[in-house]
Amino acid sequence: KFFFFFSHDLKSPFNSIVGLSDIIKTEAKNLVFSTIEQYAGIIHTTSSNTYRLLENLLDWARLQRSQVLFRPVSVILKNLVNDVIEIMLEKANSKMIAVISYIPDNLIVWADEEMLKTIFRNLISNALKFTPGKGKVEIKSTLMPGEIQIAVSDTGIGITKDDIKKLFRIESNVSKRGTQNEQGTGLGLLICKEFVEKHDGRIWIESEPRQGSNFMFTLKIKE
């Protein structure tokens, strides 16, 4: 059932890529430059989103085969978050969404760096997907006894209580299109849950329809 959903979500972007690239190939001499530029932009965005879906699929497959090694090190959280935001800037700018990190300079966590990047990449990408243009995505941290609580918050369309209960269950398909018709499978959130739990952390969601969403998770503090 899961692979059926995933395959279905891949067909649409590939149809767009094949269709638009075919038009450029056969009609390039008759198209004005602005139209070619527009089609190329759509192909690039669609290809990037589809590539991230495939990355998530590979991560999920490796998790199920227990081939993901957990290698925690001391990580300066602000630097890692800034690196992920840099990757997401093109998508954020295309929707005129401000992505702001409030992580303090000296905060160090004990974490697997690649897993942590994947967590932030998926949560920020998800926030951008469901936030309308000119919105805001914020990344904040709160010190708690023995751990740090991290929130990726957005001013997006929000989530119903019923859908929140289904988001971290593989047997439930609650994938929805974003505010600009972006595709998705919900796989990224499942991977986030697996990776957070490998850090002995917790992940949960606070949200209401039309009120934005807060995706929260915890990590251990480096002592």
Radius of gyration: 19 Å
By secondary-structure content and strand pairing, the structural class works out as alpha+beta
Oligomer, anyone?
single chain
Rounded mean pLDDT is 87
> Can you summarize the main beta sheet?
5 strands, mixed
3D shape: globular
Number of strands: 7
Euclidean distance between termini CA atoms:
44 Å
How do the strands line up in the largest sheet? 2-4-5-7-6
Helix content: 40-55%
Give the ordered list of helices and strands. Answer: HHEHEEHEEHHEE
Point out poorly predicted stretches.
Answer: none
Percent range for β-strand residues: 15-25%
DSSP helical segment count: 6
Report on the architecture of this protein.
- The chain has about 220 residues and is of the alpha+beta class.
- Helices cover about 50% and strands about 20% of the residues.
- It is built from 6 helices and 7 strands.
- A 5-stranded mixed sheet has the order 2-4-5-7-6. It has a two-stranded antiparallel sheet with strand order 1-3.
- Strand 4 and strand 5 form a beta hairpin.
Topology:
Blueprint: H1 2-27, H2 33-64, E1 72-76, H3 77-94, E2 98-101, E3 108-112, H4 113-129, E4 136-144, E5 147-154, H5 161-166, H6 187-198, E6 203-207, E7 213-220
Helix pairs in contact: 1-2, 2-6, 3-4, 4-6
Give a quick precis of the structure.
The chain is α+β, with helices and mostly antiparallel strands and 223 residues long. The protein has helices at 2-27, 33-64, 77-94, 113-129, 161-166, 187-198, and strands at 72-76, 98-101, 108-112, 136-144, 147-154, 203-207, 213-220. The protein has six helices and seven strands.
